Amino acid sequence: MTVDSTTSSLLHVRPRILRWLFSVVLLELLPLACLADTINFGLLRGTLGVQAGLEFTDNLNNSESDRISNVDWILGPTFNGGLTLPIHIAGTGGEQMTIRTGFAYNEKYSLNGNGHTRSFSSPVTAELFVPLTVGLWRLSLSDSFSFKNDELELAVGLNEATTEQYRNLVAVNASRNFGKATISLRGDRTDTISPTDPDQETTVYQFSFTPSLLIRDRYSLFWANTYALTYQADPDLQDSEGWSSSIGVSGLLTPRLSGVISIGFSHSRIKSQVLGPGDGIFGGIFDKEVLRADNVDGITSSIGLSYANELNPNTTYSISMFNSPGVTAVLKSSSVTEVYGATLRINHLLTPTVTLSPAFTWTHAESLGRDSSGEVTDLFAIQLGLRRRFTANLTGNFNYQYVLRSSNQPDSNYDVNRLSIRINYTF
């Protein structure tokens, strides 16, 4: 179905369908009407709300050869809040143990007859923070959980119609001050779970040591050192280990410019992987099929800057550039990927109640290693957001996304347009 036919079908929706949609809205809103106050009950504090809107995409399957346009009616409740436990730990400056979460539950009704789905809207988040002190060391234990199921750029990058990812990050942080110098230690484990494609699941262990020095109370010089282990669930992919070391500066670099700049070197080792028997005699038991080990080295760098002019305080510019040779695997069926790119974001306050937020992103990803697929993919993305606050409780959001995928692989070159309009009301 083309965009024109989709628009035409919307213009000729029968009155009984409109009445049905209106009744659905009432059924969703009535249970929440009884909760017409922000939750502030003992330790629990949060905000309940409801959202409704329309979402259009011209390539539902993210496909080069099977383009299907679709319009969804979206409706569901939202919650943002947390639990502050009355646990004060001596020496932490009054910090408390906290649990925070945020989610939105959506029901999508396709106006094109492509089905009805019920799901939690992305992202769903939950965070646990526990502050501690040991001698002069300041420690923290944290666990962060997130669920994502509608990130367009992630799905296009993986060349999938949809993606569902659960991610859990457990981290231990420790730091100690020596006057203007600080030593920071961190260890974490990240588990990525994909119910729709278990072969995409990974477990990553990462350990870092970062000394830093505060200069003029505005910015810091740092030396970041990281060691990481990556384990793949896909038996056809290779596990890897790597380290990186970089120096940089972070903080208020000038009165109008703040952010982080770093440059360094990284080394990744792709481990060998036995796939099974080969094609030789005796069933290939003496000539096994093996993915060979390999090394990937290169310069790593990152820039993340934010600029604001006091003569035009309503506009903020943010730019980020990065180069990561063989540290993060982002392509499907790739053990190690080299990634570099740039993003420009602008946040402009048109009026006290209207905010315009355009963003432009380019990402280059290349599968590395002797036995890699050799995939090379470029992603170009444009996003335009417009937010209007009508009242203290009612906001409207208009969002447009365009993603172009260019790859050297077959049936992997296409673009996607997504347009959404949503109204959010908090009680």
Write out key terms for the chains shown.
427 residues, two-stranded antiparallel ribbon, 8% helix, mainly beta, 18-stranded antiparallel beta barrel, 3 helices, disordered N terminus, 21 strands
What is the C-alpha radius of gyration, as a whole number of Å? 25 Å
Bulk shape: globular
Give the proportion of residues in helices.
Answer: under 10%
Main beta sheet, described?
18 strands, antiparallel, barrel
Number of helical segments with 4 or more residues? 3
Which regions have little confidence, pLDDT < 50, spanning 5+ residues?
Answer: 1-37
Q: Summarize model confidence as the mean pLDDT.
A: 79
Strand content: over 45%
Q: H/E element string?
A: HHEEEEEEHEEEEEEEEEEEEEEE
